Amino acid sequence: MQIYLPIAEISVNAFLLLGLGGMVGILSGMFGVGGGFLLTPLLFFIGISPAVAVATGTNQIVASSFSGVLAHLKRKTVDLKMGCVLLGGGLVGSALGVQLFAYLTSIGQVDLLVTLAYVVFLGIIGALMLIESLGAILRTRGGRTPAPKRRKHGWVHALPLKMKFRTSGLYISAIPPILVGMMVGVLAAIMGVGGGFIMVPAMIYILGMPTKVVVGTSLFQIIFVAAFTTTMHATTSRTVDIVLALLLIVGGVIGAQIGTRIGIRIKAEQTRILLALLVVGVCLNLAMDLLVRPSEPYSITVEAN
Q: Can you tell me where the transmembrane regions are (predicted)?
């Protein structure tokens, strides 16, 4: 069933969009990521312009993250205090990112920036995930289980402005969570992502949060940053396609509930390596689009006066 997208100005199969939203929602529930780092490139592949894909994709991130965080709240695996600190930095970062996005749109360079950003970030994150997942699988097959690492009191614990985060069992400075939130906010605005693929590792390895509360806390922060980002995009660059957003949201909400249930039942090593392979595959596809000569090197557009 073909449906016309008024802002993107193309017709797309509605079931295809529902499927994309559902797939990203499943990833959100399983891994605590917003899923935009895969959704936005997939929208590129079906003909949606990068500007519209970035601005509209954040709507779906809000819906799938909200659906996922409800399941985690029932299990009491969300550190609300840490989430609010991360959110403070995230709102500042997303505001800065939206202004940069609007400037690049005005000079016609936003498509190139978004694509390059995806190639770089997906390449780095995918490679690191793949190496870590393969190592975990090899250790498991060899009958070796890594000894639990003791939490080290490094530079994070030496900073001022310390706060107690009872759910996470931490007493650390508020500065690192704010900086992590700001970085994720900038990425949300420029790349149309929730930033969970960077936030989750940062929360574990930099902040020292327990893994059981990381996913829910990440989703909690993503909800508000993504909502703020999409509102800013709608008012500044006007590139939010509401029809596209609604179809992605419906699929995302359903997928997030499924993903939360799947994530509990399957081995973490297997799911991580599958996600890593998917990330690397999308990165290579985007890189080929940048390097391979297009069939039509020139395009002509007519601007309305």
A: 12-38, 44-71, 83-104, 116-138, 170-198, 204-228, 240-260, 272-292
* Count of structural domains within the chain: 1
Which residues are CB-contacts of 163 (< 8 A; sequence separation ≥ 6)?
81, 85, 171, 172, 173, 174
How confident is the model over 13-31, as pLDDT tens digits?
A: 888 888 888 887 777 666 6
Both tokens of residue 194?
């929730």
DSSP-derived letter for residue 149 is: P
Residue with the two structure tokens 């985007």:
286
Residue 302 has pLDDT above 60, yes or no: no
Tell me if 101 is assigned to some domain. Answer: yes
Q: Each residue of 87-114: pLDDT tens digit? A: 889 889 888 888 887 887 788 777 777 7
Kindly report the pTM of this predicted structure: 0.66
% of the chain exceeding 70 in pLDDT: 80
Domain membership of residue 299 (yes or no) is no
Host H or E run for residue 200? helix 196-205
Contact present, 194 and 39 (Cβ < 8 Å): no
Across the chain, mean pLDDT equals: 76
User: Is 150 a domain residue?
Assistant: no
Confidence of residue 271 (pLDDT cuts 50, 70, 90): low
Any idea which residue has 């802002």 for tokens? 7
- Three-state DSSP at 12 gives strand
Q: Half-sphere exposure of 225 toward its Cβ, with a 13 Å CA cutoff?
A: 43
d(CA 155, CA 159): 7
Which amino acid, one-letter code, is at 9?
A: E
148 inside domain: no
Structure tokens at 58: 């954040």
Domain that holds residue 260: 2-141+158-291
Determine contact, residues 242/3, Cβ cutoff 8 Å.
Answer: no
Identity of the residue numbered 104: L
Q: How far is CA 189 from the centre of its chain?
A: 11
Nearest to 184 by CA among 169, 171, 201: 201
Cα(285)–Cα(46) distance, integer angstroms: 13
